[in-house]
Amino acid sequence: MFLSIITTLVAIALILPFYRVLKGPTVYDRMMGVSVAGTKTVVLICLVGFVYGRINMFIDIAIAYAMLNLLGAIVVAKYLQRTGGEPE
Amino acid sequence: MILQLIAKILLAAGTAFLLLGSIGVNRFPDFYARAHAATKPDTLGLGLCMLGLALYDGITLDSGKLLLIVLFVWMANPAASHALGRAAIDWGLVPWVRKGERQDDR
Fold this sequence. Notes:
The complex is a heterodimer. Chain A is mainly alpha-helical.
């Protein structure tokens, strides 16, 4: 019961940054919103693993997701440093 | 039993930090302030949540893996945020100032 409530709260915290992703004035705001949502997704995956009682499977998915989140953020930041979010 | 109580307290604190980070992303005035408000509560909230989950079922192999995720994210999340902020300031996004404080010494 406690874990379900915590999972719901983390899911709400996961939804909120997408307002910034949709509305953000610059492309950097959007990218930062996606990065924040990715960090919260790692927590959410581990919590869902505990709720289902299969944490030993979900934890590997969480590790892979954390690595992909870092790679995506850094690659897109390098790209935006060159173009500033406008088409070349 | 006392271990699970500690785990629950840590989980609640971590979730509060995650919620505060989400609210800060929406409420702060410009990109740099939002990056500040997004990354720090996020990193601390993830650390507290993972520590709580590691203690929830006692110390097992999965606790070690969860702490490994914390170690990785504590290195990766500030690096990604720093790269984004540097990209923004290299492109020329001007930081927000209160009206009439300073204009041109970027």
